[in-house]
Input
Amino acid sequence: MERSKPSPGDGLGRRALITTAAGTTLAAMAPESPAEGASVEVGYLRWTERRPTISLLDKPAPDNGLAGARLATSDNNTTGHFINQQFVLSDAPVSAGDDPGGAVGKVAASGIVLALTDVPSQQLLAMAAPALAKGVTLFNIAAPDDALRQESCRSNVIHVAPSRAMLADAIAQYLVWKRWARWVLAYGSHPDDGLLADDYRRSAKRFGARIVKELQFKDTGGARQTDSGVVQTQQQMPVFTQGLPDYDVLVTADENEVFAGYLPFRTWDPRPVVGSAGLRPVSWSPSSESWGGAQLQDRFMRAMHRRMTPLDMQAWTACRMIGEAASRTGSTDPTKIMQYMKGPNFGIAAYKGQELTLRDWDLQLRQPILLDDGRSVVSVSPQPGFLHQVTELDTLGFDRPETRCKL
Output
């Protein structure tokens, strides 16, 4: 495992005196000689497999996610410098051929019991039991599966990434607010696409929209980009969307990026595309600048020389949750950190205009969802008028009465 901590020459370790509107102190230098026993070690079980993307612009950087964790570690050390706490991040790459339990064991053997992970849901579930046996808490920063928050929930897994249900509800609320209530649902042939399509069906029923037609796009393989690809998609996509009943918007469920990215401006009828292409629900957008977001984006760009992705933001948030709990408790004891984080007084600022808190019934982080068109944030859900007796954030995803999670 590669361990990183601030040093006097580290670009992330420059001391700053500015604070953001969200209340997070900006990047600074950790103490050069921290006191014994004052460190919080955080692991990152980092998935190294990357599937291809439709657009070259969406190709992830090699440090996608890890860069966000590194920036948050620097931010944590800003506060930690004044209260004699230091935060250390350890990178632990995981590949498809690795044993998930063995990967957790290596992290635990080095004394780390707080670990971020962006592995897929199958690997995450395989990690959860050995992690629990070794006293390790996992922070899920990538897997959106509803089952992980429902029947397959685990008491030692914190979900920082939004669930599919939260993302689908965020789009659905906006479409209903716009009175675009007649949907065509186009979904892919992979299992994850079907799960996302199920969430859009649930959201339509929940908020009063109507799916007037469903289409499935079968993935037959082959190259995603060829010399004749533009001609092929220009001919194929109109035919795929031809002969549909009257509808307002085309909702797409394509987690594997097979077809949805080819639909905007190529549909038979002139209709907006949302979901997996067009207007997309995301935890973060590189264009977000509200609530101090521009300051975070600038800091990230200066340190990492690229734009901040949703995975970077989810990793940043997870590390900041640990730092915030350590600061509030005045302790570097992981047990006390997690007790506070799971308690009623915990909250974290994350440049989204609201305090983010944990749902006690499934350990999902409540958060607004940004609706991004690739150039700007079009809107933020929850939408106006979608009320809740506790918090409007619980209108996104599975609410307490709907949960099947038994921690």
In short: Confidence is low (pLDDT under 50) at residues 7-37.
